[in-house]
Structure formats: C-alpha cells, structure tokens
Amino acid sequence: MSSVIENLAAVPASTDVAAGRLPASQYAENFADMHRPLTAHEALVESDRCYFCYDAPCQKACPTSIDIPLFIRKIGTGNVDGSAETIFSANILGGMCARVCPTETLCEEACVRNTAEDKPVRIGLLQRYATDHYMADHDTYGARKPATGKRVAVVGAGPAGLSCAHSLAAEGHDVTLFDARRKAGGLNEHGIATYKTVDDFAQSEVDFVLAIGGIALETGKALGRDLRLADLRRDFDAVFLGLGLQAVNALGLEGEGMLGVEDAVAWIEMLRQAPDKAMVPVGRRVVVIGGGMTAVDAAVQARKLGAEDVTMVYRRGREQMNASAYEQEVAQINGVKLVTWAEPRALHGANGIVTGVEFERTSIGLSGKLEGTGERFVIPCDQVMKAIGQLFVPGPVAGETAEAIALEKNRIRVDDEQRTSLTKVWAGGDCVLGGEDLTVVAVEHGKIAARSINAALGA
Amino acid sequence: MADLRTDFLGIKSPNPFWLASAPPTDKQYNVERAFKAGWGGVVWKTLGEDPAVVNVNGPRYGAVHSNDRRLIALNNIELITDRPLEVNLREIAEVKKKWPDRAMVVSLMVPCEERNWTTIVQRVAETGADGIELNFGCPHGMSERGMGSSVGQVPEYIEMVTRWCKAASRMPVIVKLTPNITDIRYPARAAKAGGADAVSLINTVSSIMSIDLDNFAPTPTIDGKGSHGGMCGPAVKPIALNMTAEIARDPMTRGLPISGIGGVTTWRDAAEFIALGCGTVQVCTAVMTYGFKIVEEMIDGLSRYMDEKGYRSIEDFRGLAVPNVTDWQFLNLNYVTKARIDQDLCIKCGRCHIACEDTSHQAITHMVDGVRHFEVIDEECVGCNLCVNVCPVENCITMEQLTEGIDPRTKRPIHPEYANWTTHPNNPAAVNKVAAE
Fold it and tell me: Is B1 within the bounds of a domain?
C-alpha cells in the first residue's frame, strides 16, 4: 500500500491553508521562467540541427501550420526578424505558443530527429528566440490595408479573439474587441501557469497584437450581461465569438462547498493575478483531482508556493492523461506525487473544513469500462483542487432569441470556416465543438474565421 | 603493432606526422612543445633574409565556420618568419641537437638570385638540419615581392632555383608547390627536372574568406581594407588530394616522393594522403585549432587502422589508391547502380526526395498509398548518388550494383564486361566501337 493511504482518524480537524509558506526571496526563484531562453549561439547551433525536411512533418503537426523549417533556417542565417515574421504570418500569438504549446505532442513529436536519436529540434525554444527578438524592437506585426468601413465585433479577447481581431484589422476592417474580464488575454492571462509566461508576457503580447491599429478594446463587457448577441448582429457587419469556457465540472460529491475545496481554474487565475505570490494561500497537504494540464499547473504551482505534500489523482492510467508525458515529468520533478487508477468517492471534513478525500481504486472491467474495484483509501489534505474539465455555459448565446445558436455536445457547432448556424456569426476557440483547449488551436480558429469573415464582407 | 617510422629521402622520423612550415614551427619554444607532444618532425617556418619582414599589427587570420563554430577553413595574411635569421638558425641547431630522432626540415624563401639561395642554403646546412623545403607557395604578401607563389607559378623558375639549391649543399631538397595554378603537373615536373628530391603540397589557396556587409571590406579587415590570404584547413583537403593524385600518377613524376599537405586533421586524412603515395604528411590548421595534443589521436588511429588491415609499416599501404585514380574516359559505363533506401533507418525527412525531384531525376517517391514514404523508382534512377550525399542518416541510402538482367531505366541488358567512353558508339572519336550503355 502506498504511503498516502493513512487512517482518517490521524487527520487534525482544523485547516492548514496559509499564505507565505516560504522565505520571501524564494518566490521569485520558484516562479521564474521554467525554460531559460536560448542564447544567440545556442539558437544558431540548434537551428543547424534542423534538416529542412520536405513537406515537413513539424509544420503539418502545427495547428497553425507555421513554416517551421523556413523560420529555423532564417535563424541560422542571422535573419531573426525575418524568422519571426514567418512565424507571425501564420500565428500572431507565436510568442505565447512558443511558451505554452505542448510541443512534445505537436511539432517536436513530429520532428524526424526523434526517429534517429530521440531528440527533436527544440522548435519551441527557437520560436521563442525569434519572436522575443522581434518583439523587443517592434511594436507590432503587420500593416493595415486601406479602411473598408466594415465593422466587426469580436467577443472574447483570448487567443481566438485576438487572432481573429488582428487578421481582420490587417484587412482594413474596424474591430471592437470585447472581454468580460478586466484584462484581455483570456487563458493566456488568467489560466496558464505563471512560470510558463513570466514578465507579464501575456499583456505585452496583447499590446503587440492591438498595436496594428483598428482594434478598439472594451473590457468588462460580458455577453449576456452587458452585451446582447442580437444587438451585436444588428450593429456590426459580422460577429466572432471566442467565449472560452465559463465553468468547471463538479465532482458531484457531498461537501463540495467545504472550505478548502477549490476550483483549480479559479485558483490558478487568482495566483496569476496576485501581484505578490507570497499572498496566495495554499494547503500544507494538497490533493489535485484530474489528469490534464490544468491539474499539472495547479499541482506544480501548489508545490512552488510551499505545499509540502501535493498528490495528483487521476481515475485512469498515465497514458490516458491529457497531460503529456513531458507535463507529467514536470509535475514529478517538482515533487508532485502521481496517483493513478483512483476515483474520488467522498470528501471528508470537519466543521465545514475539508480534511481528506476518499478514493476508490479503479480498473478497466470485463465490459471494457472503467469501474471501481471496491478498495478504498483516504488521502488526508487541507486543500482539494478540482481539475476535471471545464464547461461551456451557452446561456448568453442560446435561448436569447428565437434564433438560438445551434449547439452540439454542449459546444457551439461550426463549419470548416468557423461559421455558426446564425448568419453573420462566427465562433472559435474552446467554446466550439472541435476546440482542443489549446492556445494554438484557438489562434487557428480565429485566423480561419477572419478569412471567412473577410471573404463575406468583401462579397 | 604497426611500425609508424618513416624514412623520407633519408630523413628519419618516428611517425609520418610532421608540422608544416607555419606559425606552430616559428621558434624553439613551440617546436620543442610539439616534439614533446609526439610530432615526428617539423618544417621550420620559412626563413628569409635580414632585415626580417614585418607583419601587420592587426588581424592575420580569417575563418569559415559552421553554425556551431567548427572551423571549416582558415586563412592567413601572415608573412614568413619575422625574427632575425641568426636567431632562427641558432634555435634550429639547438633543437636538432636535442631531438636527433625527429625530422628537422627548414623552409626557405629568398629573392630569385642564385647567390641569395646558395648563401641561405649553406647557412642552414651548418645547423645540422635534415633538409630544406623551398617555399614556392605562399600566395599573399611575399608573392608581391617576386617570391612565394609568384615563383611557384612559373615552372622554369622552379626548375632553376631547385637546381641552385641542389648544387649548394648535400641536403635533400623538397619543393613546396602552390595550388594556385591551372595544372599542378607542370610545376611538379619542373621541380623534378631541377633535381628536387621531393615535392610537398599543397600550400594555401588564394582566398577572401568573407565580406563584412557593414563595412564592405574583406575579412580580416585592417583599417577598413583587406587583402587576399591563403586558405587552409579541412575545406582544402579535396583540392590537395586531387593534386597529389595528379602528381602520383603522372608518368613524368611517378615515384617522386611527396609530403602531403592540406586539411589533414585526423589519422584518417593522413591515411588517405599516404594511400595516394605520400611518405609523410604535414599538419598546420588542426594544431592551430586544437593544439599539439591531437597527434596522439593521429598516431593511435593510424596504428589501429594498420593493425586491422595487417599493414606493418607505412610502406605496406602507401600508394595503394594511385592505380585506382583514372580519367573519366576510362570509367566503366557498364557499371549500373541504383539507390536503395533502408526503410528501417529512414527518418522520413524527405531530403532525398526533394533533391531528386527539384534538381535531378524525379526518382524518389514521397507518398505511397497516401503514406509518407520514400522509395527509389528504378525506372528513373540514374544512380547519381545525390540522395546518398544529402541523406542525414549514415548508411540509410546506399548504391547497389545491378549485375544482370535489364536496367529498368534504359530497358537495356546489363553487360557484365567493362566498356568505357573510348569505345562508346556516341563518341565521335571512338575507335573499335562496342555497344556499351
């Protein structure tokens, strides 16, 4: 039996969730860049490793189809700005994608160097090298075509909305970019682990995107609260919805309202926005439930805030986790325990404070379905973070009028040009069916939608 | 254990690895360090007449690098020794006395007058040096003063000076040739006619390494200007091998001892020069990059190679490649090969495909049944070897000889017998035409 299995009776009935667990100086180190950027020489050497493949598998693996061999070759010849423009022409958020893309399951997994030596070209770091270089002395990328007089509303200033807005502005349309939150950036600003995007990069990137001109940003405007879709359709020539996901899945267990039971997405957002990480409370013992990147980001950051004992529990095996093998390794390097094949069955608590989570071991039964084995164990803890997936809340776009947007599997249904069932309305990113919860996929949706909108407006 | 000792023109050395006349052999301090490291001999940096030349006080070297700063080629605008003749002669004598088992050859360059050459040769003879090397090679600086390559480019001068030097002492005379000439056989023949005991080659190749695109000047740049230099290092080895082979197989110079120079960096490079007939090799750029210690790798690598092959001495394999260097017209046109891609080794980069598709014979697939797959189309493959050369994986693509049946490309039978251009029906000058493919 694992050491995490302890008798509930041994657990004290008081909470141990506290801020400032570490010496003040430790926070800066813990939340520094996880991957040091490449130096100029390292970038040259690394660029030399690229074989400039024909019909390159890395490019095909990139959801935004960045011409990776070409941008790497340009780094190798000292044409770093040209390299960055190759990247931005396909993906205006190339800087963030270089930081947050799970390259190990995208471009770098496809790299042919894996076959020969199991060591792909470090495409993500090269992309970061080029885009950082460019963004250091360019305010923006691209130039606007002559004004068309057409107006487009983009709802949601996350990756999909930013990408769509930039492309449309470049075509000469006037864009109004709405976001429900106080700051633009979407999950790049609120949802991604701090150590993946240091130095307020998400905001710098928003500034870089908006600086092309022709984009009016209006924050604090939520669809359904401050904006109505019907009005947007009336007042604008086209509407793009990049709404993201608004809620998280519940465990469906009694006691989810207890003190210490947290929604991992909200907790990460609070951490991201905290000016001083020492102010963020974290449990001494933390259980994170889930197997995706949010679970890893929450677990690792809990450790970085000084949690002594962080256990990530997933109901299936490591291979089924949404978090890549690399992300799992990051979790383990940071001292997170991974427990697999266990599903939460009950939350234990006392005085309205969570004290532990009871799990049942699982396996794939004869029917081929996941089922409990009957064996149970309790992991005592001070804090539980739920990271078992996010939900799209269709309220603002469904049922508002007789012309409700068609949904499928509780996401907005779109065609291959990102058109919704409503005329003049396009959608993309996590809120649509086919969204993969990846920044890079959202960027591509925004790009495709912008192309389609542009064609529609020109007609 | 292989015996690496060499006897070149009667000059004995414990191994065939000599340091070429260059900065590493400019003074006693360096040469003694080289001998301690294990080098078999040196050619002392070129002596001239007093007053000594002066060098620029800015950069003397330029380079071509790969992205990881591997030095692919080096060039220099340094002149011959800038130390007084007396100092050099005294040190040469001292070093030779202290290291009697090592080869001590002295490089020379003086104005093209008999008296000048005779005088300096006799001074060198007094040091006890084993031989002299006539520097007819340097393409920069000294050539503007009628020395170095400006002599080496005129076969008549080579023959004349060589004769003077042979007459001036009993020391063996090695003539160092410049590659900055159309046909290397002419200067080699002239050296032989003048009585040279050997030739050494190549000296550096005239070069401008790069242009500074901010200042629009060649590099290395001296106060905004640059002058061509002499290039050496790994990049020049193929040029050196060809010129060595030309001399080794020329009926007029066949058998003339050769000391091979040009990009020798490893034991393997040295072995290749020896296979083309060289009795010793001379090294410069490699030690200027890595220091003298590399000779340990060279000695060990060459010994092991010889042991594996069963060669007990350098003489056992020296020149074995010379008979296999021939003219194009004598290549077997009935020898048919096709590229073969080892699918287990293939990493699917597609370089073979795009090279063949864009620039050659459209003989490699990129997609088979909707799957990324690279395979040779025998009906189109001319056996050119380009795919082998661009493939990043060693031995993934190889050339396979077809020995019988029909060549799928030409639809003609494969003839087992040898036939070359001289008898080919398409050759207007052919005699006794035979049906070769």
Answer: no
* Cβ contact, residue pair A53, B353, below 8 Å: no
Apex B336 CA angle, B330 and B338, nearest 5:
135
Calculate ∠ Cα A252-A257-A262, nearest 5°.
85
Q: Quote the domain boundaries for residue B412.
A: 329-423
User: How much is the ipTM here?
Assistant: 0.84
Closest residue on chain A to B393 (Cα): A116
Fold of A151-246+392-458: FAD/NAD(P)-binding domain (3.50.50)
* Residues 240-259, chain B, touching A (beta carbon < 8 A): none
Question: Percentage of chain B surpassing pLDDT 90?
Answer: 95
Contact of A118 with chain B, judged by CB distance below 8 Å, is answered with no
Average pLDDT over all residues of chain B:
96
CATH code for the part of the protein at A8-30+248-389: 3.50.50.60
Which residues on chain A are in Cβ contact (under 8 Å) with B69?
Answer: 41
- The residue extents of the domains of chain A are 8-30+248-389, 40-137, 151-246+392-458
- A8-30+248-389 and A151-246+392-458 share one fold: yes
Residue B393 has pLDDT above 60, yes or no: yes
Backbone angles phi, psi at A262, to 5 degrees: -120, 155
Is there a single domain that holds both residue B76 and residue B203? Answer: yes
Q: How high is the pLDDT of residue A403?
A: 67
Average pLDDT rounded to a whole number, residues B2-27: 98
Average pLDDT over residues B329-358: 97
- The answer for B 349-378 residues in CB contact with A (under 8 A) is 349-351, 353-354, 366, 372
The model's confidence at residue A281, banded by pLDDT at 50, 70 and 90, is very high
> In 3D, which of B136, B146, B152 has the Cα closest to residue B112?
B146
Length of chain B: 437
Strands (E), A365-421: 370-380, 383-386, 390-391, 407-408, 411-412
- Residue B431 is given by DSSP the state S
Given its phi and psi angles, is residue B424 left (phi above 0), alpha (psi -120 to 50 degrees) or beta? beta
Say whether B351 and A53 touch across the interface (CB within 8 A). Answer: yes
Span A40-137 CATH architecture: Orthogonal Bundle (1.10)
Judged by CB atoms closer than 8 Å, whether chains meet at A55 and B351 is answered as no
